[in-house]
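FORM 7B: Structural annotation worksheet

SECTION A. Query
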Amino acid sequence: MPKLTPFSYAVLVLVGEGGAGAHDLVRMMRQGQHVFWAASASQWYAEPKRLSQLGLLDAERTPGRTHDRTHYTLTDAGREALRTWLAQPSAFPRIQSEPVVRLLGAEFADPEALSASLDSLRAPLAEGYAALEAQRAVVEDLPHRASVIAINHRLARRILDAHAEWLEEAQAMLGDAAGR
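SECTION B. Predicted structure
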């Protein structure tokens, strides 16, 4: 079997027992992209097709609002792949933080310009908090995942809070450096 990536398993988990279309996966990604998994929309469309070709997902064309859509469901092989992967040790999350690198380069920047650059984080932070609030309704649709969704939401809030606190601290330091 071709190598599956952590992203492959993310797709399998999100398809879950209820199934999902690629458009559903993109919507889920957009609701949680700031915190758990970021990938381009094209990847969320391509990976279910690949997993279907590997026999891990079944694909069925269903009517959509404007055109037919593909709805994916787990196969027995997909469930077995998930069981095997879930039993393996978890890797520590990879963290790639452009803002942290920008702050590290503060010695090369005008403090006010760098602070303004970092200020662009406020909109995605607000979107992340809003997405968390909107996702409360998701729990009602997925009662079998309610407890794990609640745990993940608490982690997401702590991650967003940590970024917001980091931003305040970084901008305060840059303000001091600018002589304010």
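SECTION C. Observations
The beta strands are 20-21, 57-62, 69-74. The first helix runs from residue 6 to 15.

SECTION D. Sign-off
Analyst initials: ____
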